[in-house]
Amino acid sequence: MSVAALPVRLARFDDLEDSGSRGFDPGGQGRDTLLLVRRGDEVFAYLDACPHYGGTPMAWRKDAYLNGDGTRIVCHAHGAQFDIATGECLAGPCIGQRLTRLDAAVTEDGNVCIFMSPDSAPTCDEAGDEKVRR
Ligand code: FES
């Protein structure tokens, strides 16, 4: 039997810097386990786990997931560079592998939500199906 994923609110869309990234710890593990990247009106969500080596966390400091010009996600362990829209590694030691993408949505009232298993984190009260835009 499968269990439906629940929406989990991470942030207000307007609080995310355009062309910026931010890490989150929705499961309360004591470290950021996923990241959001905003590009204009879009937001992309990935696990903070590099496919090169054992799911290594990628930021070199809090929220530092992008390269200098903000065009790629970077793992600072060995320099892998990932396409923001697809999560595919385009340069570095794991070319062709991908970050694990999460299903993200922005509600009509401006909350960014991801969808997680029910035991992971508080739900996003504002994210009923009819309110979610993609
Ligand atoms: S662990 Fe990310 S590039 Fe090596």
TrEMBL record:
Recorded GO MF terms: 2 iron, 2 sulfur cluster binding; dioxygenase activity; metal ion binding
Pfam families referenced in this protein's UniProt entry, alphabetically: Rieske
Record domain Rieske: where: 8-114
Domain of life: Bacteria
Keywords: 2Fe-2S, Dioxygenase, Iron, Iron-sulfur, Metal-binding, Oxidoreductase
InterPro entries in alphabetical order: Rieske_2Fe-2S, Rieske_2Fe-2S_sf
Protein known as: Ferredoxin subunit of nitrite reductase or a ring-hydroxylating dioxygenase
